[in-house]
Amino acid sequence: MRQALSRRLRTCYLLLLIPALLGYTGALAGGLQLPDAGVPTRIDAGVDLNLDGGLPEPGAPARLKFVDMPAPLVAGECQAMTVELQDSSGQPSTASTDTWVVLSSSHSTGHFYGRGCTGSTTMLLFGPGSTRQQVWYSDTLATDVSLDASASGGGLASDTYGPVPVQPGALKSLKVEGFPFTIPALEEHPFSVVAYDAFGNQKSDYTGQVEVWLDDTSAGAGVLPASPYTFTAQDRGRANFTARFGVTGFHVIYAKDHAAPVTGLQGEIHVLPAEAVRFEFWGVPQSVQAGSTITAHLKALDKSGNIAAGYLGKVQFTSADPKARLPGAVQFTSNDGGMMYVDFSFGTAGTWSLVASDVARPQLQGAASTEVLPAAFERIVVTPEPSDLVVACTEVKLALKALDHYDNIVPEAHLVHICTELATSSVTLVENNLSLAASGSVAGCLEGTLRGTGYVKWRNPQPELVTFVLSDKASWNTALRVNWGPPTFSPAHSTLVFQNKTLDVPQLRSFVGQLGLWFEPRDTCGSLVKLPADKVLSFTGDAPLFFSAPVEQQDGRWTVDVRLPQCPTTGEQPLRIFPTLNQEPVLKPDGTKLKQAVQPVCLPSDVRISLRTEPEGLKQVAPGAVVDFVVMVQNMGQERFLQGLLMVSAKDLTLLEATLDGQPLALRKGGFVLPELAPGATLTIRAKAQASVSAELSAGASVWYANAEGAALTERVDLAFEPSAGLVDVGCGCQAGPLSSQLLPLLAWLAALSHARARSRRVRRGERIDP
Q1: CB under 8 Å to 55, separation ≥6 — which residues?
Q2: pLDDT score at 696
Q3: How far apart are alpha carbons 30 and 26 in whole angstroms?
């Protein structure tokens, strides 16, 4: 009676330790987790344990964060900001070792500084125990900027502040911009008054009042809108005006801030008396040969087409023809009377224009067009494609062009004679588009007619330096060397074939069928070669094909076994097989993928597999319980399997052991190694597994039989258990009831302590206890 009471009291005393034990989450196997903060956990009748222990301690540094940022950033100002270490939840965290942080700005004009804003830096050090570091930033570019902070050694998530605007600095200058430097009198033109800070940023927040005026006070001259003008927020530092002058000569536009001593101007504005509106060329022919000089009459015209005799502008000439020979810029004088002669020529065949435009007023312009024809034939140029250094058995295309002095293609027919320097060369003609001479070709030579452009393709199976000599047998000749080097490995010439293939698409039976494939690396000449060391061969294909690891043979070929571990969902459609090199498909010369295909034949497996519990028919499993399984593998066919694998996939179960005839089975490739399975033989495997401690588990297992490479030879057999809630009676008056799965391992441990075996006794120091 006293012993029973003692055991009962020990249990109750131990239960009082539960709140303290729950605080030590790392001591329980399986990972004990606290309930959500603020949720009472029922321990016994009338006792609530509230686990809300306040704010958690900060974790290890996980990321960087810009904090205490200045608002706004202002150009030219050195402004303080802070970089903070934070844990994964965003709480401030403390560095345990020296941590270097790299600071960067999206502006090349932005720089970080230490205290005092002297000496720019890009690095920030967090010493052990530090959480924040202050840094200063200065920028001179008033546009959106992004600031970045990242750990130099990695390990911390970086932070980007921005993009945020950098506001312009204080007003430094006003500028008058955009007014033409040469204009006719009384012609109105736009211009802008722009506010800038000291760094050349347009001061978009400027809202000051300015006065704008001209040095010309004659009738008809003036500025709109009238002064004074107050900048608005919509102006963003740039206000638009129009002005016109009435007096000829050089003039100035002035601008002045009403409150600050800031001024701006645009001077050297030349007001002319003429009113020319366009240019016109006379005497330009409809067509001309490349390089021929054209002499044309350039005239300045008014709106009615009359010559503007008072035009005194400077004219420049442009053309889109890159080979045009243009006159330099010319200045009209009062002696010209609004017209002058100009000489020019074009060099590129096609239709081209010469454009004359006023330097001061680009809108005042005129153009003349003509068709440019190729000049006389001068030479034939030859370009090897892809290059003059190739590997044996590859083709080289010699691209031919008949050109004039200006590199225009001359379409007239020209005789081309192409010979190799040595008649004994191994080079052979593959293809050409020349009009061959009636006499045909002699050994090592080709003769034909070139009309503008053409090509000749050559191939050489031998490493050899070949010199081609081209001429017209009269006025020109040229030589070209092509170096064919040794052949090299070529994926495009490599082959993929079945071993002992009798059909174009051989059949492959499910489960037990197997086909061998040869991947044959070949060079540019088609010879079998070793696969380069920097190439890794692998295979992919349509599901559910299974490939063994490729094995290199002595002659350089690679062999791989193909199996069909189950029937495809696509039915009897052929399944494709693709080799890859460095995970990239192998392409044939026509650009398509190198491949083979098999015809699936779906038949039941000759191997049968079954799975049951012991005792048989077990439907539920308690959390943490140990479950016994029996797996039977039977060979119903005539094939002998020298070695196989028992593959197991479990959910909420931990496999403890698997034995055959009382002997433990070894693990390999994710399964248990099984001995030979002879025809008609049966292997009986016994396995133990432990259920998860989760109270809401839906445990289950799947097993299947595979060959030594891991390819399935049977379908999967599944076994699932229904969920079982954990009910525990801990004694000492406590009520049985469902408990959180987090408490189950703890209570099981307490029960083991409180229920000692009848023959237990105190163990003396140094005493050994054998099982």
Answers
A1: none
A2: 62
A3: 9
Name, in order, each residue with C-beta under 8 angstroms of 307's C-beta and a sequence gap of 6 or more. Answer: 299, 300, 301, 337, 338, 339
Rounded CA separation 198/547 (Å): 71
CA distances from 506 to 488, 500, 517, 546, 599 (A): 32, 10, 11, 16, 6
Decide: helix, strand or coil at residue 194: strand
Measured between alpha carbons, how far is 607 from 619 in angstroms, rounded to an integer? Answer: 27
At a CB cut-off of 8 Å and minimum separation 6, what does 597 contact? 505, 574, 575, 576, 577
Give 498-527 pLDDT, tens digit per residue: 987 777 889 888 887 889 999 999 999 999
Give me 644's structure tokens.
């196989």
Q: CA triplet 584, 588, 589: central angle to 5 degrees?
A: 125
Q: Is the dihedral of CA 4, 9, 12, 18 positive or negative?
A: negative
Q: What is the pTM of this model?
A: 0.44
The region of weakest confidence among 216-220, 258-262, 462-466, 580-584 is 216-220
Angle at Cα 587 formed by Cα 582 and Cα 589, nearest 5°?
145
What torsion do the CA atoms of 406, 410, 416, 422 make, to the nearest 10 degrees?
Answer: 30
Pairing of strands 222-224, 238-244: antiparallel
Using CA atoms, how far apart are residues 431 and 450, in angstroms rounded to an integer? 14
| Spatial separation of the C-alpha atoms in residues 601 and 567, rounded to whole Å | 8
Whether 176 has a pLDDT exceeding 60, the answer reads: yes
Rounded alpha-carbon distances, angstroms, from residue 288 to 292, 317, 375, 438: 7, 19, 9, 36
Sequence letter at residue 307 = I
**Three-state DSSP class for residue 515:** strand
* Residue range 526-554, pLDDT digits in tens: 999 999 999 999 999 999 999 999 999 98
Which two structure tokens, joined as six digits, stand for 627?
A: 């479950």
d(CA 269, CA 251): 5
For residue 177, the tally of other CB atoms under 10 A from its CB is 12
A 10 A CB-CB count for 103 gives 23
- Inform me whether the pLDDT recorded for 756 exceeds 60: no
Contact 257, 210 (CB under 8 A): yes
The most confident of the ranges 509-513, 580-584, 696-700 is 580-584
Say how far apart CA 355 and CA 372 lie, in whole Å. Answer: 16
**Type and span of the H or E element at 166:** strand 166-167
| Both structure tokens of 317 | 């000439």
Alpha-carbon distance of 714 to 677, in angstroms, equals 14
> How far is 670 from 689, CA to CA, in rounded Å?
16
| pLDDT given for residue 239 in this prediction | 95
Contacts of 73 (CB under 8 A, 6+ apart): 79, 137, 139, 145, 164, 165, 166, 167
Q: What gap in Å lies between CA 572 and CA 375, rounded to an integer?
A: 68
**CA 558, CA 388: separation in Å to the nearest integer?**
34
Contact 586, 536 (CB under 8 A): no
5 CB-near residues (< 8 Å, 6+ apart): none
3-state secondary structure of 749: helix
- Return the axis-axis angle of helices 744-754 and 2-15, rounded to nearest 10°: 150
Q: Give the tens place of pLDDT for each residue, 387-446.
A: 888 999 988 999 999 999 999 999 988 888 888 887 778 888 888 888 775 444 455 688
Q: Is the pLDDT of residue 648 over 80?
A: yes
Distance CA 360, CA 82 (A): 53
Cβ–Cβ under 8 Å, residues 633 and 677:
yes
628: phi then psi, degrees, rounded to nearest 5: -100, 135
Please tell me whether residue 4 adopts helix, strand or coil conformation. Answer: helix
Cβ contact 32:746 at 8 Å: yes
Beta strands 507-509 and 596-601: pairing type?
Answer: parallel
Mean pLDDT check: name the lowest of 88-97, 245-254, 315-324: 245-254
